[in-house]
Amino acid sequence: MPTDWIADLPLVDHHCHGIVEAPLDRGRFEDLITESDAPAPAGTTFFDTQLGFAIRRDCAPVLDLPPFAPPEDYLARRAELGPEASRRLLRASGIGDYVVETGHKADEILDPAQMGEMTGAGYAEVVRLERLAEQVAEDVSPADFGAAFAARLDDELTRAVGVKSIAAYRGGFDIDPTRPGEDEVARAVEAWKDATPAGTPLRLTDPVLVRHGWWSAIDRAVPVQLHVGYGDPDVDLHRCNPLLLTELLRLSRGSGASFMLLHCYPFHREAGYLAHVFEHVYCDVGLAVTYTGAQSAQVIAESLELTPFAKALFSSDAFGAAELFHLGAELFRRGLSQALQTWSGPQGWPEQEQQRVARMITADNARRVYGLDRVPTTSFGRAR
Description:
By secondary structure, this protein is α/β, with parallel strands linked by helices. The chain folds into 2 domains: 4-19 and 93-375, TIM Barrel (Alpha-Beta Barrel), CATH 3.20.20.140; 24-81, no CATH class.
């Protein structure tokens, strides 16, 4: 268990999504606790995973069940409590601020303000570059795309504290990282729209337009979140090693933009190297923490081998199920506590220094990079 002082530290979840408020049957719940896009094989369950065991161990008591209650009992109790189950799990997480990315299935989940209202926590928004490009391209000519995208992004950034790119899902990072020209962007939009069958939603995969989004964000000197590593079957894992971003990171030095490498597993050591050598690079092991469960303490410790402590952050990447927020927080506190205690023994790290490092990682770094103390939003009746 975490030491008392780590258990009491508030967390800033610098990358997450909203929860699904509608009731979840077993099939839908199991969909939310796997990165697979297919049901578990017949006769098996996604509860028989590191994440499934962590839910039964750490979430069941929050819902008044004994640890390791059977999945059937857990889901029955969850259904009996209704929305109160999610409220309990979220509030028990100790997350004090949510930075919510709104580009994925936004119509199915709570928006940032609703997350703040349910939890009594602060909230802010991050917008997805590829989704913005798809929306803009639907309504304008290829020649007008560049100006229209710039105007839309500027408008979004009057409310949002940063952007996210899912280039890892749309071809990977091994692309030309240089800024594309206006004519190149217009030609790419024209080819994209011509190749999309009538009545089919636009889906951005063109690397020219991916890096156009990157450079649009870099020019605005905002935090740029990048999904790195582990994810669903759309990811070609070998093409989203963050080392493939090295030239982009060189080119963007001095821009004022920050690159926030998300999740990073199994490339968390590579991400730590990049955060170590580039002043504008930060990283976390968000999604990996919940999915590695009992092994997450090792992943957290490995991620901090090279990452400067002022460059490491906490995130859950939780989507849909409140359990993912609760476990992201609980497992992260536990793993960070274990790492600090391990280092404090033979190395003699003073407890005061351990606390200072923990505060940076759990909240202070995110507050600084995203400027959360300057966000002019209201959450649960309190000014942020």
